[in-house]
Amino acid sequence: MSAESLWLLCLGLCLGLADQGENEKLPRPSLCAWPSSVVEPGSSVTLQCRAGFQNATFMLGKLHDPGFKQEQSSAETQAEIPLAILQPEDAGGYFCAYKTAATGQWSEQSQRLQLVVTGSWPAPSLSVSADPEAAPGHRTLRCLTPNNGSECLITALLRTGTPDPVQVKEGRENQTDFTLCESSEDRGSYSCVYYQCDWPHLGSSRSSHLEMQATDETDGPGAPSTKTDLRSILAATFSCLAIVLLLICVFLVDGWTRQDSSGGDSSKRSSHSKCDKQETSDFAHLENSPVPEVTHVELNADIPSEVASVPAEVPPASREGAELEV
């Protein structure tokens, strides 16, 4: 093989590898917002672009705004781009892409992330709808907006602690229904918000929060459990306990009163019984004591009758009277 043929072979291999590197597509990145993609004016949010390669350069862009472009290099497989002091004009659709030193080409753009800045429209209302067509084991949340049907609006159902909306629906009606399963996975604090379908994507304020719990934790099917219900249950429980304690105190006081009154009568009865027992014992002692025997003196026949019949001693006064008579 000549030197010219060898050189042409090497050149062809190099061109083939270059074409293969240019035609190779990088995996599509993902974009998310933390703590939430629905924020209040003046707050901050962090947009995280995640790729499958390390040591890449990341780029954040915005739809309908060619002048917005932020780049950041990262040794990790992701980049975090902060957005601070957000205003209504910062709302809109964001996307990200990345490139590596080996390719030098930007990857395919991520899916669009809709950033909503609230406060430009009145707040909607969120409630539980008694939908007869709802399937068993499901409940319907209805978000009412002041839309008159002249403008396209996007209504989003939000749950506290979840960065992205749980459900999103587009329409011109003034009410939007969201269906949830009656399970522990769907319990939480919900609210809703709406914003314009088209640029500048102005958003409303959040609705009031609605606390939802699983079916086995509610008072009835389809009825939401709220903090007010919990407070009512606790108040009723404490009231019942107070009534029970009051009844116990009344019974104890009544028992002590009866015991005191019966104590005096029993002491009197015990004193009388002691006297009766003493008299009975004395009488029994008298009955059991021996009767003294009468001693009969037998007169001796040999003693003269004069001695035997000794007259009784005459009192002195009688003797003096007898002497006077003589």
Automatic annotation (TrEMBL):
Its keywords, alphabetically, are:
Disulfide bond, Immunoglobulin domain, Membrane, Signal, Transmembrane, Transmembrane helix
Q: Where are the transmembrane segments?
A: 233-253
Locate the Ig-like domain: which residues?
A: 27-114
Record-linked PANTHER family:
MHC CLASS I NK CELL RECEPTOR, V-SET AND TRANSMEMBRANE DOMAIN-CONTAINING PROTEIN 1
Superkingdom of this entry's organism? Eukaryota
* Listed SMART domains: IG
Q: Does the keyword Glycoprotein apply?
A: no
Protein name (database record): Ig-like domain-containing protein
**Any single biological process term in GO:** immune response-regulating signaling pathway
Supply one GO CC term from the record.
plasma membrane
Q: Which InterPro entries match?
A: Ig-like_dom, Ig-like_dom_sf, Ig-like_fold, Ig-like_Receptors_ImmuneReg, Ig_sub
Which residue ranges have biased composition labelled Basic and acidic residues? Answer: 273-285
- Gene3D superfamilies given in the database record: Immunoglobulins
For this UniProt entry, which residues form the secretion signal? Answer: 1-18
Using the UniProt annotation, give all residue ranges assigned to the region (Disordered): 260-326
